[in-house]
Amino acid sequence: MNKANPSTVVALNDEIESLRQQLALKEHHYDVMKASAEVLAEQCEKYRDQLADSQKQVTMLRDALELLWVGTNRDEWDDVAINTIESALAATKPKP
Prior knowledge:
Blueprint: H1 6-70, H2 79-91
């Protein structure tokens, strides 16, 4: 039976330990990145919900503004009010 050279054994043990440390560091980086991805996914979901709520509010306000605009006599409005309503309706017009 061949005996291993002690310096070779030490070198191999050092290399194994170095690889273990590298693996532990990579696992830590993976865990950090995974946690970051989960936080970002939660934030995206929250922002999606907020956007949907905002879009519903804009639609509701636009519908109310159209009812007001169509249901009144425009001669009763001054130019500033007319421009404001027309601008608001144009700005909230749904995109095709």
